[in-house]
Amino acid sequence: MGIAQGPVGQAESQPTQSPASRRPPKTVTPQTYSIEQIQAGQLQFSAQCGFCHGRDAAGGETGPDLTRSKLVTEDNRGDKIGPLVRRGRPEQGMPAFSLRGADLAAIVAFIHDQKSKAEALGGGRRSVDAADLATGDAAAGRNYFNGAGGCSACHSATGDLSGIAARYQGLALLRRMLYPSGQPGPALPKVTLWLPSGQTIVAPLASEDEFTIVVIDSSGARQRYEKSSVKFKIENPMSAHFDQLAKYTDDDMHNVYAYLDTLK
Question: What is the distance between the alpha carbons of residues 165 and 167, in angstroms, rounded to a whole number?
Fold first, then answer.
């Protein structure tokens, strides 16, 4: 458990504002797609993009919520999404994708369909105030941080977390605690593959499902391997944080938040 910090001195604006309380930006050019194309895009998106952006395009482990993306809002049938997908954003951890035109068009259809659904929901929920979160016991949180939670194995109240509550308040601090994003462009998980030929490959993990692993090779191309034919090990620097989500009780979360809120 812990918090991966952003750039030194960077504070999030509107620290108590919940993303769900803001309405998604309205699509500039409304567009519709066939159900067949949307369904095909859902499969492609899940395999190619879901690892980072979530299977519903609403944000995942390392990728942003595309239903609230300015680029998607201004896109017209892939004129902005397509070029971005093909060139990638390596500096932000997004590789370039080489996709068939029909597959890319289907992904665009799925993204826009998800965005339309998000717009229909509308948002508008009440913002989260810091007082809503300040129900924990800071002393109990400190004990959990240094004991059962195992947080102190990687983090220090006088080291990397020193002053964290001065930079993040309320919901922003809780988000950093539960879903740390790290520095801009967080590194992709790394996978080591041992091939039947005896070759060992170490590369960033692009995606994974029950049967296959897709890695990004040194040229930026995506290479697919069947899990049944290789030995592999995945190292995700954020895995400890994700594992912790299944261990927290409500009291643990509020107590650790209360403790972190004292680190000003």
Answer: 5
Interval 21-41: pLDDT, tens: 567 789 999 999 999 999 999
138 and 256 assigned to the same domain: yes
Q: What's the total number of domains in the chain?
A: 3
The answer to whether 105 and 33 have CB atoms below 8 angstroms apart is no
Q: Calculate the CA 138 to chain-centre distance.
A: 28
Residue 76 sits in a domain whose CATH number is 1.10.760.10
Q: How many C-beta atoms lie closer than 10 Å to residue 69's C-beta?
A: 20
The amino acid that residue 241 corresponds to is H
What pLDDT, in 10s, does the model give residues 216-227? Answer: 888 888 899 999
Name the maximum alpha-carbon separation found in the chain: 59
Q: Which domain holds residue 214?
A: 190-236
Q: Are residues 221 and 146 in the same domain?
A: no
User: What does 78-128 look like in DSSP terms, one character per residue?
Assistant: TTTHHHHHHH-BGGGTBPP----HHHHHHHHHHHHHHHHHHHHH---PPPP
pTM (2 d.p.) = 0.48
Find, among 87, 107, 111, the residue nearest to 98 by Cα. Answer: 87
**Judgement on whether residues 111 and 217 belong to the same structural domain of the protein:** no
My answer on whether 135 and 254 are in the same domain is yes
